[in-house]
Design a protein that fits this description.
Blueprint lengths: L2 H6 L2 H42 L4 H28 L2
Helix pairs in contact: 2-3
């Protein structure tokens, strides 16, 4: 009977497993909040820019959508990393 056999059946092992889940959830929450903050800042600046120069609205909107899509892609990647990291 090895050391791991002794540890895995104890409440300490259950606590470590629970901390692992809490860490993953905290990482996912931080990633999601950061992405929401970034996308909302992009949207706010885009609306402000379009209000100042309505003729540039199409170009600003295109740049905004591309930037938001890049942030969203990074967010999905980071969420996957948070969930599969052990």
């Amino acid at each position: 009977m090895g050391l791991m056999d002794l540890v895995l059946g104890t409440p300490l092992a259950e606590m470590i497993f629970n901390l692992d889940i809490i860490g993953k959830a905290l990482g996912a929450a931080l990633v999601t909040m950061g992405a929401a903050k970034g996308i909302s800042a992009i949207g706010a600046k885009a609306v402000e820019s379009i209000a100042r120069q309505p003729e540039a609205g199409g170009a600003v909107q295109t740049a905004m959508i591309i930037s938001a899509a890049l942030i969203e892609g990074f967010t999905f990647f980071a969420l996957i990393i948070c969930m599969i990291a052990s």
